[in-house]
Design goal:
mainly alpha; Four Helix Bundle (Hemerythrin (Met), subunit A); 66% helix; 0% strand; flat
């Protein structure tokens, strides 16, 4: 079996070459195993997680776009992590208390009341003041009552205010570092303008209108770009 570099193997694998895909898996298995070690002692066998992580790598091969101008391993990391986390959550390994779910429902109720009164979505700091919970607790609660995903679903069609939830899970330092890495790697693949939108909207907590004014974009444009970003990150994570 002739050996090629990652670029050639990916191109061939995307054309349906099973031998090229097999070589890619073999060459990059060390990356998968390294990531799996971060999830040890989570109630799942090591070899099983390696297999799940390999599925994430295969998805990375199939969706890899050379126009991203990034190395394959950088692109593959968040997909591998996302696949493992989906498996752990779908398998019921990650448990959520009733109290956290109750907090999540209460937060959504307060959010809806705020939107009706002010005709805009509240920031995370405003939600914290309304609910009496920390931002981290809000993120965890909202994630707990949402459908299981590696990336949090937006609270409504025009908002993605729980994007920061993928940084959450403060009861486990390894999880926090892993998810931050996944987010960082995925965001690095976005065009500069979209990265700026994320920074202004979710780290600076600016409104869509304020973000648009700073970037020279309309509010509608910012909203459309947010949806594109969420779709991309959902596939990547």
């Amino acid at each position: 079996m002739q050996t090629f570099d990652n670029t050639t193997l990916i191109k061939n694998a995307q054309k349906g070459d099973s031998e090229a895909l097999e070589q890619l898996i073999s060459k990059n298995l060390g990356l998968v195993k390294k990531i799996v070690l971060r999830f040890k002692d989570r109630g799942c066998e090591y070899e099983d997680l390696v297999q799940i992580g390999t599925i994430g790598m295969i998805k990375a091969v199939r969706s890899f776009d050379f126009s991203f101008n990034t190395v394959f391993s950088t692109y593959a990391v968040p997909l591998i992590i996302g696949e493992i986390r989906r498996h752990l959550r779908d398998d019921g390994i990650i448990k959520v208390s009733r109290n956290i779910k109750k907090n999540g429902i209460d937060i959504l109720r307060k959010k809806e009341e705020f939107e009706k009164k002010h005709s805009r979505e509240p920031s995370m700091s405003e939600l914290s003041e309304l609910s009496g919970l920390s931002v981290d607790d809000i993120v965890i609660a909202l994630e707990a009552i949402s459908p299981v995903r590696s990336l949090q679903e937006p609270l409504n069609e025009d908002s993605s205010s729980t994007l920061a939830s993928i940084i959450g899970d403060d009861d486990n330092v390894i999880d926090k570092l892993t998810e931050r890495l996944a987010l960082k790697e995925a965001l690095s693949l976005l065009p500069e303008e979209q990265q700026q939108i994320i920074i202004l909207r979710y780290f600076k907590e600016l409104s869509q209108q304020q973000t648009g004014e700073l970037l020279g974009l309309t509010q509608v444009k910012v909203s459309r770009e947010e949806k594109k970003i969420i779709n991309f990150l959902r596939k990547a994570l």
